[in-house]
Amino acid sequence: MNATRRQLAILRSLRTRKGRGESGLFLVEGVRLCSELIPAKARVEIVLVAEGRDPSGALGKQAAQLASAGAEVLQAPLRDFERISDTVNSQGILAAAQWDDLAPEALRFTEQATVLALDGVSDPGNVGTVIRTAAWFGVSAVLLGEGCADLLNPKTVRATMGGIFQLPICRDVELKDESGRLKRLGFRVSAATMDGSPDWSGWAKNPRSALILGSEARGVSEELRRLADRRITIPRRGAGESLNVAVSAGILLSAL
Amino acid sequence: MNATRRQLAILRSLRTRKGRGESGLFLVEGVRLCSELIPAKARVEIVLVAEGRDPSGALGKQAAQLASAGAEVLQAPLRDFERISDTVNSQGILAAAQWDDLAPEALRFTEQATVLALDGVSDPGNVGTVIRTAAWFGVSAVLLGEGCADLLNPKTVRATMGGIFQLPICRDVELKDESGRLKRLGFRVSAATMDGSPDWSGWAKNPRSALILGSEARGVSEELRRLADRRITIPRRGAGESLNVAVSAGILLSAL
Which residues of chain A neighbour B239 with C-beta distances below 8 Å? Predict the structure, then answer.
């Protein structure tokens, strides 16, 4: 069925935080990310396919799968599709899925658990790549604190490469309160800083470990640094001045 | 002095590979990156400052330093400046510097040396972030092989965060020939693949080690995989499907 003007307007509004907040929906773009929706049991409201972009019928097949899981399948001229899509070379399929917010208190941790918290990481690509990395390493949960890019920004979603569906993620977390709570649950909290211990290889040797990473510009906030049990630093061996936050996450998580 | 139309056109041409090829110049944008030009002894031809963007005089001071190192300092209306700048919120200063290509044969290695080679990494941000990471870890040289994003693309330059000036980088390297040459120089060549040894912690235990990383889509080419002394893999512990190439570089280089 052809999408109505109104439906297209709703989908387009999902590019903005305001639009996502009003509808509770977010955009999932492309074949690969859409293929994660069914295993993740996401509630998909709308699937939009671009007209003339499906010569092989593969998109139609994917859309039909999502329809059988309850989604309404719509089509639109390529021009309208592209006004919604955030990608430059879109594959001609996108979905609007419901995001169910998860409170940190609802997380259930096993005996061995690793939590990754981001403080003020404002770049959507960086937040997404950290989540992708956390999914690779099987982190128990990711907590997004104040000043972080919106998880549901299409750029963040895309950079997760499916990671958004592969591990629990909490948004708008008050990290100050949450690190206290994690400590009471037996977590040892480490903050990655520029002045920490260069011997970080054992940061996760506690059965339950939490790691806080800060923004590239300002690092972990002073208050969170003070609350942490320890500060750790990736030793610099060259002339470089900094590491990307997702690269730092990968290096530290590889020591799990 | 005000930039002429012709000068502005040359600067604007540096956004394209063709323009950079014709003039041998590349764009260096922003206060931080421009501050690397003098210690790096880069030959800077032109510094362009946006009119009205220097209330504190800091840009003028930086431009004067570059002038004393031989650069011609020009100014232009903000609108013209922004047509050249690749950044969204530019700081109002950019430079056109000469890039001196470095052949791999000209590299001189010490007893202990680590070389990082990229095969087909086409995203400028990824190439830049790999170089930033290599600079942090003090890698001896970075080799960019076939299919890599242009090192001198403004997006690559920016993502290096100064790393482009902090270690030797060779462009357009025929990696097949070069891995043979490195082997003859005593390098042990490792390729990061999805099917390699999960015990990669000792990949750099040879005094001279080279590491080849491939594109996220296709990995290291079959031919280079065969030429490598060994294949290594970062073990996956979660549901995630892949790692970003710069994150992989960071994880493997942290084991240096």
Answer: 135, 138, 166-167
Cα–Cα distance measured from residue B167 to residue B139, given in angstroms and rounded to the nearest whole number = 7
Q: Give the C-alpha separation, A155 to A29, whole Å.
A: 10
- b/e burial code for range B185-200 (CB count within 10 A of at least 16 → b): eebbbbbbbeebeeeb
Report chain B residues whose CB lies below 8 A from the CB of A234.
Answer: 136, 254
Chain B positions in Cβ-Cβ contact with residue A132 (cut-off 8 Å): 240, 242-244
ipTM rounded to 2 decimals: 0.94
Mean pLDDT of A174-186: 97
From the centroid of its chain, how far is CA A216?
A: 18
Quick one: pLDDT band at residue B88, thresholds 50, 70, 90? confident
Q: Is the distance from CB of A232 to CB of A191 less than 8 angstroms?
A: yes
Give the gap in angstroms from C-alpha B136 to the nearest C-alpha of chain A.
4
Q: Which domains does chain A have, with CATH numbers?
A: 5-98 (3.30.1330.30), 104-253 (3.40.1280.10)
Calculate the average pLDDT of chain A. 95
State chain B's maximal CA–CA distance in angstroms.
Answer: 60
Helices A124-136 and A245-253 pack at an angle, to 10 degrees, of 10
